[in-house]
Amino acid sequence: MRLPNFYAAGLILMTALASSCAGTTTPPLEWAQPISGSADRVAVFSASAPDAVISGEVHALRDTAPRTALIIVGGSGMRTRADAAPAIPLFMDETLAVAIYDRRGNGQSTGAFEVPDTENTEWLVPAVARDVTAVAKRLKQGGFDRVGLAGTSMGGWVNVAAAASSSDIDFIICISGGASTVGVSDAFDHYTNDGMSIDDAISRTCGYDGPSGYDPAADLAALRQPALWIFGDRDDSNPTVLDAETVRRFQAQGKDFELIILPGVNHDLITVENGEFNTDWLSAARDFIAGSKGALGQRP
Question: Sheet holding 257-262: strands in order across?
Fold first, then answer.
């Protein structure tokens, strides 16, 4: 569960608008006037989650009214919306708004923040997922027809846990993680950090019998939403081979999962040969967002 460099490279995940309490009316999204010269407009929101209020903002291109919103979930190192902001220009277009948020206990969000480790993710991943589902609900109440999640590394696990428990989430995109247990992923990361090759670390990880942390198996089995999985074959932090095996197994069982494995690409979606951020997956991700059927099997 290495802290990803996606923020410096320019990637990952969304958050946003509308929630209500019994007996109260959900306030509408209030879009601020675009700053002169800016390509986008912004609406600030807050969402009521268990024991916290999650604050964030939704970005849309000026003079557009997209009906689909993408929440940028982020990896273990994401704390504030600024960490996820580089993902906005990657995804935002005429049909898609992008939401980013402050993780609980950071920025303008209330609640207690916990630094993830292998063992505490058993409860922490579902807890962070509940915050994400609160944001998705707020977005739906704010007028978006479809809401999806994009997450990298730890964000993949959060995506799976959130989507399995919420009908307000219509699709997920999991990058560089989300299909193995946290314990397996962290063990693999430990082996490669000690100098072991990726292939040898995969072999060693297959015998891992330590703490599992969050295990996505039950949530993966419960998923009804389409999911796009994007992995790099040179990822030395998360075991691509093992994650891909899990995805293929669920594909064989009829799950609406799509899989992309990028050759020569590492955990941060950097092409190791030239050090450049890889965007070969982006067109396929846009097609997936546009064409995914959602949890109810209905096309947008």
Answer: 40-49, 52-61, 96-101, 68-72, 146-152, 171-175, 227-232, 257-262
The token pair at 70 is 């993408």
The token duo for 50 is: 């268990």
- What's the length of the chain? 300
Buried b (16+ CB within 10 A) or exposed e, 123-144: ebbbbbbbbbbbbbbbbbbbeb
Global pTM exceeds 0.90: no
Task: Output the CATH code of domain 6-21+28-291.
Answer: 3.40.50.1820
Kindly report, residue by residue over 64-121, the tens digit of the pLDDT: 999 999 999 989 988 999 999 999 999 999 999 999 999 999 999 999 999 999 999 9
